[in-house]
Amino acid sequence: MTVTDAATGPTTTRGRPPTSEALHRADPQLADLLAAEAERRAETIQLLAGENLTTPAVLAALTGPLIDKYAEGYPGRRHHTGCALADAAELLAIDRARGLFAAPHANVQPRSATSAMLAAYAALLRPGDGVLAMSLEHGGHLSCGSRANFSGRWFDFTGYGVREDDGLIDLDQVRELARRHRPKAIVAGSISYPRHPDWAAFREIADEVDAYLIASVAQTTGLVAAGVAPSPVPYADVTVAATHKLLRGPRGGLLLCTAELAERVDRAVFPFSQGGAAMNEVAGKAVALAEASTADYRAYAQRTVSGARALSEGLAAAGVRPLTGGTDTHLVTADVSPLGVSGAEAERRCAAAGLLLGKCALPFDPAPAAETSGIRLGTGTVTSQGMGEAELAEIAGLIARVLADGAVAPAAARVRELARAFAGPA
């Protein structure tokens, strides 16, 4: 709920820090937009897989004095003076990342997981090199070969996929394609695959063809940190992670790698692909990494998975088909065509009811790319707000009802009740 003061406008929002009076005085138009955004969140249920709530401690670090510090370079090797405390903050984040993920080396400067992937490619490849990665149609990210992205323009990508009968990664196909194309690197990871990759099998295939193995775990970084998902770090040459999403830190990327590749990875971030690091984000990452090492966070990560399973089971019971028959993670990818709607229509109807999810192309999808047959959901935000299996099972029913009969109004009323009951971080 937003509380309005006659002099300054909206000043507090349920579960979030107050918008500063300075902003209201300097730019009331933007302040009103931010207040409206907070109110929108308070009235809807957030099921977009890539979003979450940053924790209050992370927000405090993001708005702290390091927001103004320019620190181009690395600790002890900056191109500006006055960086001793910025160095200490970055070293703290690095040490926490290395400890949390049992990684020989960590780089905490990437501004996003995509920029981290760019740096991973730059460290290991040259333009024109071959890369084997999950095809975009089967769940690969844009940075895994899209011609609209740097990856598809600079490198020669071959896509692997999943089996049509069970939706699981076809490791026989991965091996056959690796032998045929002899890629310089193999990327394991997806944005919509709800099962754990077999990291050991990918390592074995990469070794057979003398390829680097890049693990892309932007979606599941938090699950790996909590020990709820198997870690790729012992198997991958480079691991690309995200510090927002399930980790609940600032929007940003993280690179983990072997000691042998440390210098190459660092140089690929700076000076090759980025300038000065955003030191407030680095500080926020340090906080998030510390929080992710706690028993409370591990319990949170486990709840995201149990909630996703309840959501998946509820959708299946209502006639929506979950890919692979369920989930190991916080992700649910599902086929809505049995209810007679497209993914795009499902996204629109659910949004009208205050249920925010995303359309998603499915493997072997007969629907046009602009429409799709699938939806992708995630339980990170709602779990941060305190929702559990009972609420997720109910939400599955609300989604199915909206898709099956188009009755938006009754569902919307219940969505608002749930949203208000679970408005802030739990």
Number of domains: 2
DSSP strand count = 19
Q: Could you name the CATH topology of the largest domain?
A: Aspartate Aminotransferase, domain 2
Terminal-residue CA separation: 16 Å
* Average pLDDT number: 93
Q: What is the chains' assembly state? A: single chain
Helical residue percent? 40-55%
Largest sheet: 7 strands, mixed
List the helices and strands and how they pair.
Layout lengths: L1 E4 L3 E5 L7 H6 L1 H16 L1 E2 L9 H7 L7 E2 L1 E2 L2 E2 L5 H18 L3 E3 L5 H12 L5 E5 L15 H5 L1 E5 L10 H11 L3 E4 L10 H10 L3 E5 L4 H6 L11 E5 L10 E5 L4 H12 L3 E2 H13 L3 H23 L3 E2 L8 E5 L7 H10 L2 E2 L1 E3 L13 E5 L1 H5 L4 H17 L2 H14 L5
Parallel strand pairs: 3-17, 8-9, 8-10, 10-11, 11-12
Antiparallel strand pairs: 1-2, 4-14, 5-6, 7-13, 12-13, 15-16, 16-19, 18-19
Structure commentary:
This protein has 16 helices and 19 strands. The chain has 426 residues and is of the alpha/beta class. It folds into two domains: 59-291, Type I PLP-dependent aspartate aminotransferase-like (Major domain) (Aspartate Aminotransferase, domain 2); 295-421, Aspartate Aminotransferase, domain 1 (Alpha-Beta Complex). Strands 7-13-12-11-10-8-9 form a seven-stranded mixed beta sheet, with helices on both faces. Helix 4 runs parallel beside helix 11 and helix 5 (113-124) packs across helix 10 (262-273).
